[in-house]
Amino acid sequence: MNSPQVDSRQAPPTPRPASDFVAERLDLDPRYAALREEPLSRVTMPYGGDAWLATRYEDVRTVLADPRFSRAAAVGTAAPRITPVDQQGGSLLGMDPPEHTRLRRLVAKAFTSRRVSDLRPRVQALVDDLLDQMIAAGPPADLTAALAWPLPITVICEMLGVPVDDRDTFRTWTDQLVALSADDPQVILSARESLDSYLAGLMAQRRAQPTDDLFGALVAARDQGDKLSEEELVAFGVTLLVAGHETTANQIGNFVYLLLSQRERWDRLVAEPELVPSAVEELLRFTPLEATVGFFARIATEDIELGGRTVRAGEAVIVQLASANRDATVFARPDEIDFTRTENPHMAFGHGVHHCVGAPLARLELQVALGTLVRRLPGLRLAVPADEVVFRTNRVMRAVDELPVRW
Length: 407
Prior knowledge:
By secondary structure, this protein is an alpha+beta fold. The protein has helices at residues 31-35, 57-65, 99-108, 113-117, 120-137, 143-148, 150-160, 167-177, 186-208, 214-225, 230-243, 246-261, 263-271, 276-286, 321-324, 359-376; strands at 16-17, 41-45, 49-54, 69-70, 141-142, 298-300, 304-306, 309-311, 316-319, 381-382, 404-406.
């Protein structure tokens, strides 16, 4: 029996407020399952008006891959967005090819799987040192403060050439940058200005005294090859620094919480540590990172058929990655965690030209962190009941605020 055809000329559905979608801890709003049975939905974004919401795997994949859905066209104060301040101007995240291709090429070599693999001994040494300090201090400990945050911050600082001793300063700024709302948006703008000024100072140092770190290479690319404008240079630095630690730090805490909150998951990895790489992929698929309907809008540059509807030129589309990663047409038993899942084409790192350039590094850090924990601390457990673990609020990404543990 043929499926009913959707008339793409019908009037668009009544928009749902994006704020109606609930982000409770690491649970995915159950309404996404129903939305995946429908054509595209309409949502009213907190800032900038209405957008189409894509929740199905194939629709999300299409939006991320089709160049007719433009990120650059969504940059600006008028585009629908989830945050009070648009910060994507001049950023790699807010560009389309060929500008995006030009910038991404400058940094892509530093994040190839081969280059990242060479970092494994250093990442392992950092994890061991951080755990040595935590164990020496004795339980209970906050795993987020002991491991989840300092690991990716140190790694990305060393790659970029940012003084690790400055991490408390720039982490305060980045924490303000990822707020979903602010009583005074000037707080977010001031944080961005402070971070821009800080990185501009580091770039100036590189001109005076060239270095072989990634920032040094970017400065050389600008000054010698004229490949980066001053604005691009600083914006690129902000993107690399923030994205290089924020998401991985959040997911280390989230993953360990998911494992320890249902003990059989943790015990399975302790008994079979060879499953850690596939467990990381499964946790990436299963764990919703977005605390809202989605991160970045894209604007249709022409009329496009998508999900049984016509997206008109100039209309915005938001993708919900966590929903796509639970699509039963792609993943068997999508709401279950299966460490032995063999086919796992999740889109936790995105898809298309904006696929996360740092994905190999994030995978390495997650694998080493989890693998070392299950090997060195097989008796690790939550120091409080799972429902008493506090999660961060008013942030673009979901994350535990603290993760009290014993061993």
